[in-house]
Amino acid sequence: RVASSSLMTGRLAVGAALASRRVLRIGGEDALSLLQRVVTNDVRPLASPGAAPVYAALQNAHGRLEHDVFLHREMMSATGGVSGALLADLPSDGFDAAVALLMKLRLRAAVTLDDVGDDHAVVVAAAEDDREEGGRGTSVLPARFQFLPVDPRWVGLGRRGVLPAAAVAALLGSASPCGRGGSGGSDGGDASTSTST
Predict the structure, then answer these.
(1) In CA terms, which of 3, 58, 92, 195 is 20 to 30 Å from 31?
(2) Is the pTM of this model over 0.85?
(3) Which PANTHER family does its entry note (predicted)?
């Protein structure tokens, strides 16, 4: 187990799958327009394949902020084609409430919501230089982590992505990287699986 503070203060490059986060797939032709209405950041860039992830907060019908969320464009569909779905990286302890809120807010929109937290995981990677002022996010990070997107909050936080369980297992050397647990803070909380170099 690697606490989130270890990712920020340790001396080694670290990769981890976060048990404190759970993944929701948001699909359908109205997915982007729904999210554009209910989150605090502009999600329109996610219409493009290969778009960088977006960090935002999910708000209720009255504009109250409810949950933080990282939104990623899914790279491939289950059949191997290009996917137009989005993967929402949400706090595990607020996941059910976030899904219920989205179901309420979608009204008649053509949007599908699928819990894929049992076969996907949020992976983060940070390196010593990433935590120094002015770090560029890749200086001492092992090459195997550099395909992950840069954390959208700040380059010094390293890299963060959503991967299928099989890819996480190959990357981190674990057969079961996914799962619920931990508190759902936006910095990642406890890690279910970790590796250091």
Answers:
(1) 92
(2) no
(3) TRANSFERASE CAF17, MITOCHONDRIAL-RELATED
